[in-house]
User: Fold this.
Amino acid sequence: MTTAPAPEPAEEIIPRPEMNFAALRVALARVAPARMAEFLADRDVLFNQATAEQSFSPIRGFLIKWATEIEILRVPALAQRMNHAQREIHTLDRDDPAWRAAMGEALAVHNEAETAVTGG
Assistant:
């Protein structure tokens, strides 16, 4: 009896959404629905900040932040790397060199995802 090899994880769970509120909301609902309340609360704070400052910068920051989060969640390889790094960050002693390596890996994953969504 032979068993079929385990399927490779999909390169992407969903296509990369456009960087606008509606598209990001739909994408987040698919990859991390439990984070929707956080997304909406963040939107409210930053849109109020944008109004108070009369600037679009907080809105752009919101879009980049959440597009980056969704990029990590929608690409299994990135999500696995981030999850592994975060487990080490939360379990290792800060004096352990592996803790610093895990922090570096988390930052690298974040930067890779942000570069993917901003184009540079």
